[in-house]
Automatic annotation (TrEMBL):
Pfam entry (one): OEP
Record protein name field: RND transporter
The UniProt record lists the keyword Signal: yes
Classification of source organism: Bacteria, Pseudomonadati, Pseudomonadota, Gammaproteobacteria, Pseudomonadales
Signal peptide start-end: 1-21
Main location class: membrane
Organism from which the protein derives: Marinobacter similis
Keyword field: Cell outer membrane, Membrane, Signal, Transmembrane, Transmembrane beta strand
PANTHER family: OUTER MEMBRANE CATION EFFLUX PROTEIN, PROTEIN CYAE
Localization in the cell: Cell outer membrane
SUPFAM superfamilies in the cross-refs: Outer membrane efflux proteins (OEP)
Length: 457
């Protein structure tokens, strides 16, 4: 009769505590649904009339040398290695969380010696298990799984970004190598002018001002060449860092490779490919589970423990030859924690809200990156067209000024100014070409293009 009465009391207490806890459960908004709605409501990008349907970043540039550099960077870049290790750590923590869903089994053997008595040995085997009535352990495991998924997406984003940086770094080497060639030609021409003007001056056909102007222009050009040569060396070191090298050199092409313009497809499809958005989305999901878990910590919990024990005068006799079993059921529930659990639940709910805002920020940045890259493609194309035209006119003008100078119709300052203008336009066109090709890689990355794995078709 007493057992029946005690059981009823425990049941009533349990139900009462459960009702109190359930009344405190989270009623936060469905942030995942809001995130889906935000992504689907993104309007289409600015239209581009041209573009190639590509799936991978390294399909934009067809180069075996570049593919080898990307593979080297992915194998040795220390920052990418750290991201991968972070992923492995979270995977291990997830496996540890999964283990909480299984019963714990422990075995023990103890010895106790009392004066004037034989040593007593006690062997025990116990099994304990917390009943996951409210899916608390399941929520914790789901949150840990979300952390793994988030880090996996961040690792993918890091790999794609690294590949884009290697491609752009390689293109920058080509750009600076061509800049060195342009400045070298400038120096050679100005030095020839200097020698020619010096000969004329010695022959009494020129004046000292012409010679000073020629020498000044040549010296300035040599200084600019030295600066560009150092920039080329620095860029090689930047690329070595991306490749995980301490030193080394890269074969530099003499001309720019063809870089395809990626086609910007529908916004929703594009955004679903972006790994940073995937990471931000699963972060919302993981924090939702943590918010739910924080509220469930206010609910009562039930744990069971079964044990077998035996005692003997020797270790072999204590190895459960004639064991005694016991079964323990335990009901625990928080009654007063000074508001700690409620505060933890509110903090977890606010963290989930914050992760949703982080997703919105990532989404808005993604849209901006695509729009900026599309706008840059159009702007750089128009600039390149204008500089092409200006350079063509400058070269014709330079030939005319050479003839006029020989005939004494213009001064050496006029000739030097036209020469400088021609080389400046060549340098500007070189930089615009690099900017446009590099921007196409930026656009591909913004559109969520990844790297083609070995064996993919």
């Amino acid at each position: 009769m007493c057992r029946f009465t005690c059981s009823k009391v425990l049941l009533i207490v349990f139900l009462g505590l459960a009702v109190v806890g359930c009344n405190s459960l989270s009623t936060s908004p469905d942030y995942l649904a809001q995130a889906d709605s935000d992504r689907q409501n993104v309007v289409s990008w600015s239209e581009m009339d041209v573009g190639s349907e590509t799936t991978y970043l390294n399909e934009l540039v067809n180069s075996r040398d570049l593919d080898a550099l990307i593979a080297e960077a992915r194998a040795a870049n220390p920052d990418l290695k750290q991201t991968l290790l972070s992923l492995d750590i979270l995977r291990a923590q997830y496996r540890a969380t999964q283990a909480d869903q299984l019963p714990d089994v422990e075995a023990g053997l103890g010895a106790n010696r009392t004066e004037d008595l034989d040593t007593a040995y006690t062997g025990t085997v116990s099994v304990s298990w917390e009943l996951d009535l409210w899916s608390k352990i399941s929520d914790e495991a789901s949150a840990a799984a979300g952390d793994v998924a988030e880090q996996l997406a961040l690792y993918q984003a890091a790999r794609d970004t690294l590949a884009a940086e290697v491609i752009q770094g390689w293109l920058k080497l080509v750009n600076l190598n061509r800049s060195v060639a342009i400045e070298t030609q400038r120096v050679e021409l100005l030095e020839k002018n200097e020698q020619w003007i010096l000969q004329r001056y010695r022959s009494g056909l020129g004046d000292l001002e012409d010679l000073d102007s020629a020498q000044s222009s040549a010296a300035s050009a040599r200084a600019a060449l030295i600066a560009v040569q150092e920039s080329l060396q620095q860029q090689q070191r930047v690329l070595n860092l991306l490749l995980g090298r301490s030193h080394g050199s890269t074969v530099i092409a003499s001309s720019y490779p063809q870089v395809l313009l990626p086609l910007a497809d529908l916004a929703d499809q594009t955004l679903q490919r972006r790994p940073d958005l995937k990471a931000a989305y699963v972060a919302i999901e993981a924090n939702d589970f943590r918010a739910s878990l924080a509220y469930k910590e206010m609910l009562p919990s039930i744990s069971l423990e079964a044990a077998l024990s035996d005692t003997g005068t020797s270790p072999s006799e204590a190895l459960l030859r004639n064991p005694v079993w016991s079964l323990l059921g335990q009901l625990t529930a928080p009654l007063f924690r000074g508001g700690e659990l409620q505060a933890n639940a509110e903090a977890a709910e606010l963290t989930a809200a914050k992760s949703y805002q982080a997703y919105r920020e990532t989404l808005l940045k993604a849209v901006q990156e695509v729009e900026d890259a599309i706008g840059q493609e159009s702007s750089l194309a128009k600039q390149q067209q204008q500089i092409d035209s200006a350079l063509l006119s400058a070269r014709r003008n330079y030939q005319q000024y050479q003839q006029k100078y020989r005939n004494g119709l213009v001064s050496v300052l006029d000739l030097l100014e036209v020469q400088q203008q021609t080389f400046d336009l060549e340098s500007q066109l070189n930089d615009l070409t690099y900017d446009r090709l590099s921007n196409r890689i930026t656009l591909g990355l913004a559109l969520g293009l990844g790297i083609k794995e070995t064996g993919q078709s």
